[in-house]
Amino acid sequence: MLQTPYYLIDKTALQRNLEIIDYVRKNSGAKLLLALKCFATWSVFDSMKPYMDGTTSSSLYEVKLGYQKFGGETHAYSVAFADHEIDEVLANSDKIIFNSISQLERFEARAGNKPKGLRLNPGISSSSFDLADPARQFSRLGEGNPERILAIIDRLDGVMIHNNCENADFARFDELLAQVEARYSAILHQLKWVSLGGGISFTKPGYELDKFCQRLRQFAQTYGVQVYLEPGEATVRYTTTLEVSVLDTAFNGKHLAIVDSSTEAHMLDLLIYRETAPIGNETGEHRYQICGKTCLAGDIFGEGNFDAPLQVGDRLSIGDAGGYTMVKKNWFNGVNMPAIAIKEVDGSIRAVREFGYDDYVNSLS
Ligand SMILES: Cc1ncc(COP(=O)(O)O)c(C=O)c1O
Ligand SMILES: NCCCCNCC[C@H](N)C(=O)O
């Protein structure tokens, strides 16, 4: 048995999401690119490649990883490219998307004939988190003024609009897109491609997939553009668990179980968005708060019900640990990083990466 903690990617669950992705691309005509900022565990890229068209990125390292390990079509985007990295970004990408007109002007000559895009910020979004809201006040994410974009439209091939966030409501997506069309149609008519970004929860059970596909197809036909989507979370939602062991138990008004992992180090989004992870089952009679092992008082994964009192050595699964986890893990408190393991469709489990003291030492100097 593998030593905990480890992230466990279930290929059967991943396959389910990938088949939905494939359905969307076949029925909408859109191309779907994996957003590496969410999930970049390249050991499973071979399983993903047949269902996705490539990757999109937010930095030089992501664009290189996508180009080298995933292939297909590689989009380069960054909130700001640096002079010393732009040539390598260009060498490892098929399209470059600038966040601002000033970045376009700075680098367009070096980009030569490479297809160029601009991030368009329509100033409206589906985000309920200010932290992840591209339309927040004073946002630096993209250009919103149609006149300023029209003034440079002949230098653009496309735009990227990322303004959804965990949006599981097709009607809301449709409404936001209609508002984008109303304000920016003169721009959209002059482009070859439009990326509608990520943040659309179309792999969630119950999502109105056929309406979604139809809407994307209609959008593409209206403007004569190739549509792209950039799913991160939708690609890996409910595919991965964080497998942990109980190290200690206590009662402090609530039953507590301390495990060999940490929210801050291994599932950081739980802290920054103040959410809790799916833990335990619906029916168990023994309720526990599952706590991380760092010194941070609020290092808590959440609460869950269990069939029996938890004991030291018990193994637990913390749910939905695929997106924004492995890419964000860190060495806080010197807690060992979870290994990364894959559960094959035949049920066998193999570790594809393990970490140790040397990795900790080498991350510092
Ligand atoms: C430009 C862009 N594309 C795609 C994504 C992926 O979003 P999600 O993981 O919510 O699908 C993000 C998230 O930051 C993004 O900023
Ligand atoms: N589960 C809490 C919200 C997660 C938001 N993820 C989206 C992050 C992405 N970087 C974005 O800003 O859109």
TrEMBL record:
Q: Name one GO cellular component term.
A: cytoplasm
List the catalytic activities from the record: carboxynorspermidine + H(+) = norspermidine + CO2; carboxyspermidine + H(+) = spermidine + CO2
Give the record's GO biological process terms: lysine biosynthetic process via diaminopimelate; nor-spermidine biosynthetic process; spermidine biosynthetic process
Orn/DAP/Arg decarboxylase 2 C-terminal domain location: 241-322
Q: What is its EC number?
A: 4.1.1.96
Q: How does it assemble?
A: Homodimer.
**Family, as annotated:** Belongs to the Orn/Lys/Arg decarboxylase class-II family. NspC subfamily.
Under what name is this protein listed? Answer: Carboxynorspermidine/carboxyspermidine decarboxylase
Taxonomic lineage of the native organism: Bacteria, Pseudomonadati, Pseudomonadota, Betaproteobacteria, Burkholderiales
